[in-house]
Records
---
Amino acid sequence: MNLSLFLADASLYTSEFFDNATSFTFFVGCMAMMAASIFFFFEMSNVDKKWRTSLLVSGIITFIAFVHYYYMRDYYLATGDSPTAFRYVDWTLTVPLMCVEFYLITKKAGGTMSLMWKLIFASVIMLVTGYYGEAVYPGDAWLWGLFSGLAYFYIVYLVWFGEVKELAANAGGAVAEANKWLGWFVLAGWAIYPLGYMVGTGEGQWYSFLMGAMDMDVIYNIGDAINKIGFGLVIYALAVKDSAKG
């Protein structure tokens, strides 16, 4: 193999990678998810026992995302296309686990398996309908997006006004604080994804004016980093605070 040609190709690959915002966010997302997973797993022994399962789930969420980002990054670089299938597989595994966090923190205050399954079912409906609108029936993206949005707002209702809110308020202390911050991630952080959805599926839709405003994958990558890592950091910070009191 000609070494000079190899180095030239490597230089071109590296330049293209870091000059492209989408590629760069895939790279940063991959590294950030890996670092977060290692951090959460290692810190499990430094918090009170009642928080360890929640922190373990946080680490699993970011580890699953790390594996998928590793493959999504390579897929994007090889094809230039959005890795839609990989992304929805990732979300189908990680978003229900994020919903499980609400059950875990309210469990001792009376949180039930029924509540957990309500959250998981709503999250799966939200993701399946989103996938149909983005990849299967893009011509009716607005309709599938509406179905996805209804499932999303049902989760928001449970967390902010419904059963989750009531349980967290009854528990008080670190549980109530954790629910408040995680609730903000659901309300504001998860709202990033509909923006990415509309940017990516705008052709022929009423929101077509959003097309070209930003790359869909950049929005999704930023949203994943904020929400997946942010969820875990909220759990960790409150676990440390609660453990220190004990």
---
Amino acid sequence: MNEPATNRLVLLSGWGCDARLWQALDGHWPDDLEIMTPDWPGYGERVALDDPAALDALAEAMADSLPHDAIWVGWSLGGLLAGALLDRLPAPRALVLLGMGERFPHPEGVSQAALAQFRKAFRRDPAAIRAHFLRWQLGGEPSPRAAHRRLRGLLGDAAPADKATLNAGLAQLAELDNTARLAAPPCPVHRLAGEADPLLAPAIRERADRLLPEAGHCPIISQPGRLARTLATIATAPTHPLEELALEDTR
């Protein structure tokens, strides 16, 4: 007899954070889910790419970590990169964009000019700018200071990636545009966003399939239980899951 298919989620971190971030969801998953949290090249203990911005090399490096029979969940830059890999790897069961649209810069969110200034400041002082970014992205959480303590407790203060990888990630945030890829995607695409995400323009938040209440850009930290339930629902019914979320989600 064939074994039943496993519901598998692959959780992909964003800029300046490695896979330890997802430990915030430990204890919130149902038993029938398989959770994978691979690091991007250059993060954690994974070897950096010779050219960290090269998408073809990224696809080759991530091929074994992004199985087609899983649902890819990309947070922030992780969502942007996962979307860019849809035409370079076999399509997953579904793609979840968490805190990310088709592209990152937006005149009503983080503008191209603001991102250019951020990149310039990063080249001068990478450690200080990464620390600033971590605080900035937590500005929409119900308790930003508590969220920052929790994030530092998971990640520590040392950079989780080398400067070249981080610099390439900022370039990808500025330049990657998945509009054409996601106009006719090879799999279902679900968009989730915190209702108070300070990095997303209002128009992008309004397009989300589900807004997560009492959350900003990092519901992984501020709403781990609610986020895990939402992702578990997607994993078990990837074609139209969000309609099935019941009122207990407000617990």
---
Amino acid sequence: MNFVLRYCRQIFGGITTPLLLSYRYRGLLWMLLRREIATRTSGTVLGFFWPLVQPALQVVGFWFLFDVVYGMRIERGTGFLAYLLSGILPWLCLNEVLIRATNMFREFASVFSRTPFPIEILPVELMCIPGLVYSVAFTVSAGLMFGALAAVKAIIVIPLLLLWLLPLILFCALLGLFLRDFTQGLPFILMLLMYSTPILYFPDMLPATMRAWIWLNPFSDLMALIHAWLQGEALPWNSLWRLGGLWLLLLGPAWLWFRRSLPHVREVL
């Protein structure tokens, strides 16, 4: 019973501590976000529009490859483009946040290496800009593809995705700090995961012997939930329980390791 209580405290702390500290130090968080926006857009013609243009160009690239070159809309029907866009935008958000998380401590080393600093707010800072950009892009895309009701439902998808990613962000930040090879290898791992997740293809396009295996990949459950939610279908409860169970299983250890590693971050850097 004591173990269960301690584990629940770790889960509760992993959710509330970054949020509460972000609110307490909201001025500092806003300064970091302004610095990030300035870094991304300084000296560019499009300025603040660039964060929105980049995912749009990626989507156009995937559309050209699968719709124009491979003719997937003709082969699989008009619903393929909607299926592709409703999966690829959350994945691009996920990909950006996790890859950046591997360099989180080094990116902000100049800020906290010499002065007291609430490091716990950094995961929230990582989520803010991609969360805003992809929420806008995803909501607009959902409205164009599925109608106004889907656009309203799409508003919560990216924030819930980022909340689910929290333990993975913590793990990636620590592994990227203590194991430099992980920073180099994660983009290739995510690329393989994207190809093994039904994002660029329907699940029934896989050979029959392989279809059951894709559900060992939790991102397949994630995509199944997103598609069902946007299209007004019944939610696949097996996917929901698997994702929720995995989140509860990972958040406690991730937050415990993160909290205990904070005194050593400055030493490593």
---
Amino acid sequence: MKHISSAVGAGKIRRASRFIREDGRGFLVAIDMQTASGDGPDLDVVERIAAGGPDGILVSWQVARRYPEAFRSCGLILRIDGATTMLGNYAQGDPFELMWQAEQAALIGADAVVMMAFPGADDEGKSLQRLGAVVRECEKIGMPVIAESIPGTWARTVPWDTEHIAKAARICVENGADAIKTPAPPEIAEVADVVANTEAPVFILGGPKKDSEDEAVQYAADVVAAGAAGIAFGRNTFGAKDPTEMARRLAAAVHGA
């Protein structure tokens, strides 16, 4: 059977290798929150971050099409869901809808797509059905799917403890997600428990901006040392005094340089 291969499978592996290095780790930067917030990073910050050597950048449709050269040497991960903003009651329930399809992500050159999932929410079926629909489409074209796994909702209707974070991540993977983006458990050492329960790379969210850049870099090193495949930092990267240098420091922390 070793001579049997798959063009679709090869496509997914090739795309994933754009944002996960040979050491199995990846440093991702999230520049996609502005689809809901309407503000946030400077308009051209993706170029400065790309110069610092991240492995992949999570972006909106506008950033992907406006700054294509920023992705010459790193993966483009497209946020494909949205349709709700922080101008209203953002944290309650699951108001998300699909904005883009798998073929449109491939058209713009994406190496993966990312979308929300809310296992444990009262209306959890909405996000899990969306995830299933996206997985079905992405399987046809060899596109990796990253599920942003949030137990309950952003309102924390389910505790963000190790048990629920680990179970939510596992649920997303069992429904077809190729990688997970998730909050860290309360104790960083327990990232190992989340990873042990999840048969896919786990990327830990940066969360609110840390008190110092040194603290953010140490946090990145700690979650990777605990077993995470990497980090997905937003404010702690683009909100730095020098986003290019911060990206370099975080990349070094993730890959052990």
